[in-house]
Amino acid sequence: MKKYIYLAIIVVIVYCFQSFFLAAGGIGADSLSYFGIASDLPNLVTNLFPLGFPALIKFCHFIFQDYFWASKMLNISMVISMLLFSYFKQFYFRETVLLFTGKSIFFALNIVSSEGPFLFLLYFLFYFLHERFHDKIKSGTFLLGASLIMFLLFTVRYSGIYIYLAIGLFWMVMVIKRKAFAPNFDLFRFLVFSGIGIAAYLCFNFLTFGSYTGEHLRGAPTQYQTVYIYRNLLGMANVIDPFIGLKPSSNSFTSLAFQVLILIVDLVLLGYLIKLYQRRKNLFTREFHHLLWVIAGIYTVALFISGIFQQIEEMNVRMLAAANLCLFFSFLLIYFKGLKSDRLIFRLSCFFLGFLTFYSLKSPANYLENKAKIVEQMPKFKSKKYLYDNEHNQKITATYYFPVLEKSFSYQHTNSQKGFIKQSIAGTVNPQIKWLKYDTVPDKSSILYTSELVLK
């Protein structure tokens, strides 16, 4: 157990310092939207994103008076809380530590995004469901805790509704197939109470903004091409893999072929997971794992369908983090049942924690230094209302050389582009200057263009 405590300490250190070496500090366009909503509170301006995450940022901002530090402390507090909870509650501590070596939690809690608190809450939903399925907590405790968490999941990300629907589908199947399944009535009450909370939030949105989830603000997909459906299908298959989530943005033949190789790895891994389950299925309560699989499947397919009808990101690690967490947690619980030696999984997890860390820092920078330079310049732009990256066509290309193969390749990292970095930092320093995706505001004097900011 000591080695998992040491690994947990390493995880906290890595998660604490990693974003300091990212040029934009782990802050992207969505982060700026959340900062903007948080800075507007208590005034309600938009429901494009639910209020849960902005409210958390606002609370932390009262303490730190800086949006970067507010989000940073929020992320690291969630990491520490999950690890301490697991350790003191004796809720699969080894498995929980290893979750932090996987791609989903790593990327969700090292950037500023709603996926971080979403996965945090989802983990605690796992706890309440698991303990009730194993009759370790009372019905009232489960009903109160699980219903509240389900409601909060929806207030953090609207996609929480897919988790709710998946649990509802699981309940229906269990009622039909297993009438004697003890938690059935508790699940029904959970669906009723959390459903009332979700319905109340949707009504609040409609009465306040005139739409349920800001659906009129997203619009139709900008590009509906076969190659993007192909990439999305590959992304959906990759939800199986707990560690590897490489997905180049290029649509070149080499890039797409590389993703097919990842698909082959995913399918081999799926075959191994099925065989592992078959060998050990008599060692654990299967219903809990079946529920996790249903959630993962429904969540993945529902997001894919959503992407067809509205403008959301393609199926990548961040978008499918919740589904991947369900499968990874299920796999770890099964893997450790009847295990004689954990040497392989421990070493593999340590390797991928290192790999993910170095991969995310492949172009290291000093965020705090970059931030300090932008902070000095921001007072003279107080009158600006909008922020626009007008340097997105000025691409910076990184070249990587492989000595053994004697080959090199070039790649344009979105997060390393100067315009993106300036926009991310400026929007963090003053979220009241709202970022623009397109330069469509008639009054150009109200726009802060990134070219007006100096970052060397």
Automatic annotation (TrEMBL):
Coiled-coil stretches: none
Residue ranges crossing the lipid bilayer per the database entry: 5-24, 105-125, 188-207, 256-276, 288-309, 315-335, 344-361
Superkingdom of the source species: Bacteria
Keywords from the UniProt entry: Membrane, Transmembrane, Transmembrane helix
Signal sequence residues: none
Protein name as catalogued: Glycosyltransferase RgtA/B/C/D-like domain-containing protein
Top-level taxonomy: Bacteria, Pseudomonadati, Bacteroidota, Flavobacteriia, Flavobacteriales
